[in-house]
Amino acid sequence: MTVSSVSSSTSSTASTGATTNPADIDWTALIDEMVAARTAAAVSIETEITDNQTKITTYQQMQSLLSSLESAADVLADPSNTSTLSGNMFLARSATLTSSGDASAASLIGVTLDNGAATGSYTLQVNQLAEAEQVGSSAVSSETTALGRSGVLSLAAADGTAADITIDSSMSLSDVVSAINDQSSTTGVQASIVEVSGSSYEMVLTTTSTGQAITASAVSGDDVLSELGVTDSAGDFANELQTAQDAVITLDGMSITRSTNTISDVLSDVTFDLYTTTPSGSTITMDVGVDTSQVESALDSLVTAYNSYRDFVIAQEATDSTTGTAASTAILFGDETLQDVSAQLENALNTSVGGLSLGSLGLSFNSSNELSLDSSTLESILSSNLSGVEQLLGFTATTSSSDLTVGTYGSAAPSSFTLDVSVDSSGNPSSASVGGDSSLFTIDGSEIVGNSGTAYAGFVFNYSGDTSQSIDVSLSYGIASLLHSTAASAADGTTGAVQAMISGLEDDDTTLQSTVDDIDTAAATYQAQLTAQYANYEAAISEAESTQSYLTALLSSSSSS
After folding, report:
1. Per-residue b/e over 55-88, b at no fewer than 16 CB within 10 Å?
2. CA angle 11, 16, 19 (to 5 degrees)
3. Three-state secondary structure along 174-203?
4. Around Cβ 115, how many Cβ atoms within 10 Å?
5. Helices (H), 356-433
6. 78 Ramachandran zone, left/alpha/beta (phi>0; psi -120 to 50)
7. What is the pLDDT of residues 517-554, one digit of tens each?
8. Each residue of 266-298: pLDDT tens digit?
9. What pLDDT is stored for residue 5 in this prediction?
10. What phi and psi values does residue 122 have, to the nearest 5 degrees?
């Protein structure tokens, strides 16, 4: 049909003497225009995919900010802080050392405190440092020349085990030292060589621990120790450089002796490192107090993490100053997930425990609902009511039986309930229920695990009893614990609300991309068909023009004759 139309046009042109050149027709443009009509829907879908990818990136940013908030809150809300001393910043301690004399207290002793050390003031004097015993040999002219001595000697420190050391005539002083040191991990005695002068060398025996004496004797053969001048004819040390001695300190008037200069068994959770003796007439005072610097730092990090998230929310709520509609950068404007998570976080921040609240910590909201921290207010409450601050921030669980403890926790369980635990004939937990509902929990060995979808999801109770019990449980959710659980739940990479949005968009993009691929495949087929069809048109036009030229020439010839 198209070809005949072209032929008609050609005949008309021929009658007026004009020509039609196929090259003048832009076949590619014609084909592109027709294919573009077919792919217009794909372009629209690709725009939707791009918009979805922008949303995914924005949700991932939200997820990352929530994860940072979760980590910052976890430092203050970790449930292990309520049951163990290790790692609990609320039990951190610091020591201040002063001395009454000229010497600096820090040059006399060092102090290390573990969490939970008793606070108070102590007076201390270092009367004597612990010393390792040292004995020397007579001098020899060379450390590498064979000594010509053969025998077996025995060495041991008081805290070591005696070992026999064999010496042969080919061994030098250096070889003897090596043989002794090969056994030092057993004997507790080590050897070294001191170069007194260019032609004078002495061996020195030293205990590896302070406060320990050396025992040395000949076992067989030459009395190598005596011949080297370590011992005399009576078997006593001929050249004792340092006698073994214990450390002696006076703590609050009590004299204490230890074999080492590192003393950790006098005051619980306190370790003393003795550097030198206290000058005559001087006394060291050690004041142990609560160290709140870690809490202050953790709260500062929490404020920073929350404000970073809050700044993200503000950006997503921005409007265009001209139109009043969502700004082009507000990708999640009006997003329900963003609004829901933000509301939960704000509710967590408005929690009060034991009469304390956010303001008690010196925290307040500014005009953008960001957090501001008043350091002086925080320092005041930390010094006057540290335990109250810990409860305000963290998660606290109290049970009526020491057989039940809380391992991990969720955020939806009621503040008080009675957990009924039943055991089997072997005394192992067989079921647990609240209000007679045993479907709330799963038993895993000694653990009672709250089931997903229930108010007890996220809870793991550890039960160490061997009889059935009804145990009263009281829970307190502090600000940091609620922030942690809310942020963790929303940011979870598998089940979180944000991940659900990301996964939904990714699924949509997969479906949309499949549609685009189908459209592109069909369009490519259509383009190939058009290209072949128009090639035929072009050939037909060329043939028609050739015929036209022939007829024109024929008519011209007839007219001439």
Report:
1. bbebbebbbebbbbbbebbbbbbbbebbeeeeeb
2. 65
3. HHHHHHHHCCHHHHCEEEEEEEEECCEEEE
4. 18
5. 375-384, 386-393
6. beta
7. 888 888 888 788 878 777 777 777 777 778 877 778 77
8. 999 999 999 999 998 899 999 999 999 999 999
9. 35
10. -135, 145
One-letter identity of residue 263: I
Phi-psi region of 454 (alpha: psi -120 to 50; beta: other; left: phi over 0): beta
Please name the amino acid found at residue 350: N
From CA 191, how far away is CA 157, in angstroms rounded?
Answer: 12
pTM of the predicted model over 0.85: no
- The DSSP result for 96-135, as a single string, is EEEESSSS-HHHHEEEEE-TTPPPEEEEEEEEE--B--EE
CB 286 within 8 A of CB 97: yes
> What is the overall mean pLDDT for the chain?
89
- Helices marked H in 228-292 — which ranges? none
Cα–Cα distance, 367 to 189 (Å, whole number): 71
What HEC string does 311-349 produce? HHHHHHCCECCCCCCECCCCCCCCCHHHHHHHHHHHHHH
Confidence of residue 499 (pLDDT cuts 50, 70, 90): very high
Question: How many angstroms separate the Cα of 534 from the Cα of each of 8, 12, 43, 523?
Answer: 18, 22, 25, 16
